[in-house]
Amino acid sequence: MISSQLFHNLCPEGKLSLNSFTYSLVTCPIAFSLCFISSTNSLFNQLWFLLYLALILIVQLFCYFRYHHYNHDYQIIWRSTLLGSVFGLSLTYCFLIPIHWIPFFLFLVVVGLFHFSEYLVIAITKPKSVKIGSFMLNHSVAYHTALIAAVGEYFIELHFSHQIKSSTFVMFVGLIMCLAGDFLRKLAILTARSNFDHTIQTKKSRDHILVTHGVYSWSRHPSYVGWFWWAIGTQVLLANPVCVIVYTVVCWKFFHERIYDEEMLLVNFFGLEYIEYQRKVRTRLPFITGYPFGE
After folding, report:
1. What's the pLDDT band for 54 if we cut at 50, 70, 90?
2. Could you say which DSSP state residue 286 is in?
3. Is pLDDT above 90 for 92?
4. 123-140 residue pLDDT tens
5. Which parts of the chain span the membrane according to its record (predicted)?
6. Sign (positive/negative) of CA torsion 196, 202, 207, 210?
7. What is the pLDDT of residues 234-263, one digit of tens each?
């Protein structure tokens, strides 16, 4: 009842995205049925990764020929179906493949879920502001470089040793970090609602209020805390020792600078109200105190 009401109240872009993501999961039963073939056909065992890519391509081709005439809707549809098919197929393949491949496909699961849910929560909380960029797929060159580096390290290390990628304990810890971090970030966005934005606002809007309740009573920047641990968790999940260190350093530096700049503006927006909030609530990011005014 509640879920149907939420869907009914969702903006058109949100409904389109949710439907596209859900419908793309139709590829999962296909992959599951092929597991029976894999047990008797050695050729399939050699081609399963190509089949994975082929199923995703088929979904994308269908979307293109069916919806490309409706440009705005198509931009939402192809991204949502891509994320949905990657999420669903990757999750399915985790039950069909050798253990040393599971971290890679779980990585695709958490990345697909992160980007789709990012768009969906913005559609729920700020329907008038939701846009293609809300998927955060084109976040930055640095973000894409980081993803490529993570996948690159995984395959290089996998080439030399399967054992390093086969620890179920490491996989479990990384997966928990990713899911918990993503949940915290989405909870922060849902709590802040229209007061949340993907970019730092240099001017205070009329309806902008200081959110201090819910998860914001525990952390001044819970969405950043969630993203920080999600990012590091992806590398723990992949068992990438080099990228764990690099991601930690780069993410810490990024959020240290971003929080400093953002809080400087927030002090300007809210004055003593924000300074008092600073005194009461920490950032919850390690060794990051934020803008020093009022600390």
Report:
1. confident
2. T
3. no
4. 999 999 999 999 999 888
5. 21-40, 46-65, 77-98, 104-124, 136-156, 168-184, 227-255
6. positive
7. 999 999 999 999 999 999 999 999 999 999
DSSP H helices in the chain: 2-9, 12-23, 27-38, 42-67, 71-93, 102-125, 141-160, 168-192, 222-237, 241-270, 272-280
Contacts of 221 (CB under 8 A, 6+ apart): 255, 259, 262, 283, 284, 285, 290
Query: Tokens representing 241?
Result: 């020792």
**What is the Cα–Cα distance from 185 to 206, expressed in whole angstroms?**
25
CB 38 within 8 A of CB 99: no
Least confident among 14-28, 54-68, 140-154, 207-221: 54-68
Spatial separation of the C-alpha atoms in residues 99 and 122, rounded to whole Å: 35
Handedness of CA 114, 127, 125, 12 (dihedral sign): negative
Would you say 177 and 108 are in contact if contact means Cβ atoms under 8 Å apart? no
Mean pLDDT of the chain: 90
Tokens of 211: 């959110």
* Count of other CB atoms within 10 angstroms of residue 141: 8
Copy the structure tokens of residue 16. Answer: 């389109």
Please provide the DSSP assignment of 103-135 as one string: HHHHHHHHHHHHHHHHHHHHHHH-TTT--GGGG
User: Distance (Å, rounded) from C-alpha 255 to C-alpha 74?
Assistant: 34
Torsion-angle region of 287 (φ positive above 0: left; ψ -120 to 50: alpha; else: beta): left
pLDDT tens per residue across span 141-179: 999 999 999 999 999 999 999 999 999 999 999 999 999
- End-to-end Cα spacing for the chain: 46
In the chain the domains, ranked by start, together with CATH numbers, are 140-295 (1.20.120)
Q: What are the Cα distances from residue 114, in Å, to 119, 128, 259, 269?
A: 9, 21, 22, 30
pLDDT at res. 41 = 55
